[in-house]
Design a protein that fits this description.
Elements (H helix, E strand, L loop, with lengths): L22 E6 L2 E10 L13 E8 H10 L4 E4 L1 E3 L2 H13 L8 E3 L6 E7 L2 E7 L7 H5 L5 E7 L13 H7 L3 E5 L21 E2 L3 H8 L4 H9 L4 E5 L5 E5 L4 E5 L12 H15 L3 H16 L11 H13 L5 H9 L4 H4 L25
Parallel strand pairs: 1-4, 1-9, 2-7, 5-6, 9-10, 10-11, 11-12
Antiparallel strand pairs: 2-3, 7-8, 12-13, 13-14
Helix pairs in contact: 1-7, 5-6, 7-8
Length: 375
């Protein structure tokens, strides 16, 4: 298994001089061992067995986000609990040794069973089964004072209430100058408490998908949800699947709607995490909102073209390959011309990307990948 985080291309090199931050991104969450079956024609009926065309194993959960950020060249640190079982060994080794994610704030816990998720991809959608024990330690106890980072990425629903006498790790990071990028997961209770959004006063950005955004804001359309969120946070982004994404940056006065790329979607697992990591990079680079959304949409689209959650997160080598192919295409149809125009800002970036730059991984729980299309 080759190392996937390539230090030879640093997209934030111009920001390093005089910077005091130890990392570009710091995040906390639960790492799952993801076992992903793809190419299914249908979900198994009771008592039946279905055969999958592809299979991959990799660290999942918050690892999808950490790997996506690191593949894009961001110096990334992760705080998470790991079991002392073989699953925990595999996830720790893959993240630390293959992906070069810093695990200094992570810990191994004796006798704690590593969380596991089985994901089944059917017709560009997915169903999941998860086994998880309660976390052995709270995030604030695990992290303490977080390392200095340009940005932190948090699950808003998992945050302890802000504003108490004892500050959370997120508040400590914000006090040290970190931009806080927040997201929210699906609410299985169906209650969608709007009070969760009260935490947005501590955040720089909020990036829910359309269904989550409408549910939490009690609105009927993604656009109305975006407006509601933009009243609460400087950078509001709503992702909307095949419809693309829409955003408002009240700090710059920009508003943008970005269409999705036409891609052959094989597996959506982790695509939202890839989008978030790309958005952080574009924001730290100071790109216009249009370019940030275009880049995030591209990275998530590239991820969906491959199987396997964190395995599919693209690196700069994949991005450079995609742009070179697009630029050299002779297609004159309106869509191709529009996409070349939309991504022309990449020309001045990928010229600095070495040919050996980071690309997608091929590792599974076995020594050789058995996912079609992987070398």
């Amino acid at each position: 298994m080759s190392a996937m985080a390539d230090p030879r291309f640093d997209p934030l090199s111009e920001l390093r001089e005089g910077g005091e931050e130890e990392f570009d991104v710091f995040t906390w969450g639960t790492v799952f061992l993801d076992i992903i079956f793809s190419g299914l024609e249908r979900l198994p009926a009771p008592g039946a067995e279905e055969w999958a065309g592809g299979m991959a194993s990799c660290p999942g959960g918050v690892a999808n986000l950490a790997v996506a950020a690191r593949r894009l060249g961001l110096r990334t640190a992760l705080a998470a609990a790991f079991g002392d079982d073989d699953y925990g060994d595999f996830c720790w080794r893959t993240l630390a040794e293959q992906e070069h994610v810093d695990l200094t704030r992570s810990r191994r816990f004796e006798g704690w069973h590593s969380p596991v998720t089985v994901s089944m991809s059917v017709h560009n959608d997915r169903s999941m089964v998860t086994h998880e024990h309660p976390a052995p330690m709270s995030p604030d106890a695990l992290i303490g004072r977080p390392p200095r980072a340009k940005a932190v990425i948090v699950d808003l629903a998992a945050c302890r209430a802000f504003g108490s006498d004892d500050p959370t790790w997120v508040e400590l990071a914000r006090a040290d100058g970190s931009l806080v990028f927040a997201d929210l997961g699906w609410d299985p209770s169906g209650s969608w408490p709007a009070s969760v959004l009260d935490h947005l006063g501590h955040c720089h950005a909020f990036t829910p998908n359309a269904a989550e955004a409408m549910a939490y804001t009690r609105t009927a359309t993604p656009q109305e949800a975006l407006y509601a969120i933009a009243d609460l946070v400087p950078l509001a982004v709503v992702t909307n699947g095949p419809e693309g994404a829409l955003a408002i940056d009240s700090g710059t006065g920009e508003e943008c709607r970005m269409p999705a790329l036409r891609v052959q979607e094989l597996d959506p697992t982790g695509a939202g995490d890839v989008f978030a990591a790309a958005l952080v990079l574009g924001t730290l680079k100071g790109w216009p909102l249009h370019d940030r959304l275009a880049f995030s949409t591209l990275c998530s689209g590239l991820a969906m073209q491959q199987y396997g959650g964190s395995l599919a997160a693209p690196g700069w080598g994949d991005i450079a390959d995609w742009w070179t192919c697009l630029r050299e295409s002779n297609a004159k149809d309106a869509y191709s011309v529009s996409v070349r125009r939309r991504y022309s800002f990449l020309e001045g970036i990928v010229t600095d990307v070495p040919a050996e730059a980071c690309r997608r991984a091929t590792a599974t729980i076995a020594r050789l990948a058995d996912t079609p299309g992987f070398a």
